[in-house]
């Protein structure tokens, strides 16, 4: 396991992952030394990427795929002109910082980086029939993007695998329809037959389990469709 001293060899301007690292150390203890195929959607400077490489990639056949545009998200762009220093996140050198950090990990050869939008990269991975047993979603924090990442990822997550949503409790936007929580809840509601959820301080950990709620055909044709009045009021 990586020590605090070992983490000092990296250079992070934003240490968001460090705030929840203790949770990961506990929740991933059973994964150490196992053969893992990990997908990380959104890696920024590599704070979580480096931890995963150092702690979960010890098996000789483990592999990791990381997806990021290295251009920042809407929440990073919006700070411009709002009494914030110019290029507060120094996005122009983001990919350079990421490369420098992961290069310091002994298991970096097991990492494949896809510099692209997740909506494109995930479709390509699925077309190639890639599967994973651990997926971490921490890309765009806009709800519709989170939902898109979740649905595409779910189809590549093996039964028994884990899907982690970062920033489940984050409220960066006044309108709830933009925040990740709206997307995560919608996804979990649809995937309910196959999920076991655990909420931590700021994340939601989802385990994919065998389907426990088989679909039951509606026996009454008169009830095939929602009442228009009720459906309209629920939107």
What would you note in describing this structure?
- The protein has 235 residues and is of the alpha/beta class.
- It contains nine helices and seven strands.
- It has helices spanning 4-7, 21-27, 47-56, 74-77, 94-102, 118-127, 143-154, 180-190, 228-234, and strands at residues 37-41, 63-68, 111-115, 132-137, 157-165, 195-199, 204-208.
- Strands 3-2-1-4-5-7-6 form a seven-stranded mixed β-sheet, covered by helices on one side.
- Helix 6 runs parallel beside helix 7 (143-154) and helix 7 runs parallel beside helix 8 (180-190).
- It is globular, with a radius of gyration of 19 Å.
- The protein starts with a helix and ends with a helix.
- 32% of the residues are buried.
């Amino acid at each position: 396991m990586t020590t605090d001293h070992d983490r000092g060899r990296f250079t992070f301007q934003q240490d968001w992952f460090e705030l929840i690292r203790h949770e990961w150390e506990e929740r991933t203890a059973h994964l150490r030394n196992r053969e893992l195929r990990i997908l990380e959607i959104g890696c920024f400077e590599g704070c979580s990427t480096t931890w995963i490489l150092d702690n979960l990639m010890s098996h000789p056949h483990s592999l990791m795929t990381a997806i990021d545009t290295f251009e920042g998200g809407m929440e990073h762009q919006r700070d411009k002109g709002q009494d914030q220093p110019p290029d507060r996140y120094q996005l122009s050198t983001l990919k350079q910082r990421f490369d420098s950090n992961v290069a310091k990990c002994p298991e970096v050869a097991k990492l494949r980086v896809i510099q692209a939008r997740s909506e494109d990269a995930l479709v390509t991975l699925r077309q190639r029939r890639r599967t994973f047993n651990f997926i971490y979603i921490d890309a765009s924090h806009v709800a519709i993007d989170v939902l898109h990442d979740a649905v595409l990822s779910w189809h590549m997550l093996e039964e028994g695998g884990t899907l982690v949503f970062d920033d489940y409790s984050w409220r960066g936007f006044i309108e709830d329809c933009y925040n990740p929580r709206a997307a995560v809840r919608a996804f979990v509601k649809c995937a309910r037959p196959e999920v076991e959820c655990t909420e931590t301080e700021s994340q939601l950990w989802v385990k994919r389990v065998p389907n426990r709620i088989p679909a039951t055909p509606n026996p009454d044709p008169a009830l095939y469709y929602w009442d228009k009045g009720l459906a309209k009021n629920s939107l």
